[in-house]
## 1
Amino acid sequence: MHLLLDTANIQQIQYYCDILPVTGVTTNPSILQKAGEKELWTLLDNIKTAIGDMGQLHVQVTASDAKNMITEARTIRQRLGSVYIKVPVTEEGLKCIKALKAEDISVTATAVYSSMQGLLAAAAGADYIAPYCNRMEWLGTDFSRVISIIRNDSERTGSSTKIVAASFRSPGQVLTAIESGAHAVTLPPSMIKEALSSPAVDSAISSFSKDWSNLFGNSMLHQL
């Protein structure tokens, strides 16, 4: 499983890059708005610096028509270099994806709510497909089946398109997405913190510390 951070908060990105094998960062206009940074290119440059040369940065276009999506994508690449352009899977979005792949530009097909969207995006050449898991579940769609269908078709056709599952409400949904065939997941830092927090783990660590103190007092292991 590859892990991406779904945030534009530089401090959180730096924090989790220090402790986890982070593949990259995904952003969209809503995430950028939460970061509260008005200088767009400065923020995105800082994210690239935080994740390093090998990290992936996914940046979303904002236009709704293919012509302007393509113009925005070219601008993003000119300003930031090698990044993944996030394009919503609509008719205009698919037209944009085909055009960008013809220019050898990396693309993440986003806002995927159905298997058909995912299959069409893969056929258009998208490098990644981002199904919105919790949003699908909220609408009564079985997101695990959506992911399974896309993954099975990818393996059947020999496609290089990968699935980066997004939009989660709980760690359980993340596990379901992975079990269903997602190659990667993108998570907000709050969900990572939740997944690593457990009263049972805290209790075990506290017990270990107490037993150590009973044996060696305040001495640390490296001091013995």
## 2
Amino acid sequence: MSSLSIRGIRKVYTNGVEVLKGIDIEIKDGQFLILVGGSGSGKSTLLNMVAGLESVTSGEILIDGKVVNDLPPKDRDIAMVFQSYALYPSMTVRENIAFGLNVKKVPKAEQEEIVARVAETLQITHLLDRRPAQLSGGQRQRVAMGRAISRKPSLFLFDEPLSNLDAKLRVEMRAEIKLLHQRLKATIVYVTHDQIEAMTMGDLIAVMKDGVVQQLGTPQEIYDNPANLFVAGFIGSPSMNFITVKPVIEGSEVFVAIDNAGKSMRLALPFHADKLRAYAGREVVLGVRPEQITDMSSAHGDVGQELGCLIDLVEPTGPDTLLTTRLNGAAVTCRTHPREAVLPGQTMQLSFNLSKAAMFDPANGERIA
């Protein structure tokens, strides 16, 4: 397998539209990188440039230390798995998997050995003599992956491969791809708009918006320490709560006033006063994850400040129940144990653990603390 270096990559189309605005990403040999973002963020364009399907306006793409900007796709030693599977309908599964081997003039006996090994790895040996029309969506995706694996490329590129599958099958295929990565120790770049895929599958996540990498890091780093409002709101399900507050500084401590159904309450924040002194009395955005606001029994040893909150909405999910209250006019989601949940219109004592809360500048979205 190979490392991948993306250095200062820009893409400007002939109409002057700049799609990528200087992307820098380094991936070590064997790492699994997720490119995640909404539509128009530039993630698929970047993947296509790595594949050689899009030209580079400026910057360099290096695979295993070699600049590949001007190399055609066939000379980059990459394998790509598409959303549409891109299987040949007239060929059997066996023939589809072996297609790249045929192109490379691999001897027939070796082809048969490789196809058998790949089919066993993906648990599709019993499907080898079927055609794509006779397969389910998940089976077709396995065949597309098998065709990629059979070539033993330096780099695997996945372009939203699970988008056409139903929810249950997506979960199963996520696990399949992750297990495949662990077995092959492959270098993978995977594009998705689904932040759950990003959190569960990758070693590294690059969160993209408007052609810019907003943050690059491990899933846990990005979840716990989002760089800005966009990342904080995009990563996490349910997403981070955002509450507009005005910090009050008293000595070395920071407080905010919280209005809940006409009752004013005061919350102490875990930030150092020096970080927020310039924002005292000004509106800022407090970010709190739903699991940081919970019922008193679920808080266990992490009991924070206790507030009585009026509940507007109750959403059972099975293992948890999500409650919605309103704080300073913002809808706030809380994650509680099902047996502790109250009914809409009732007040419930909730524990606020703000040890991992974040503070953002509403003007530019950047993190303050």
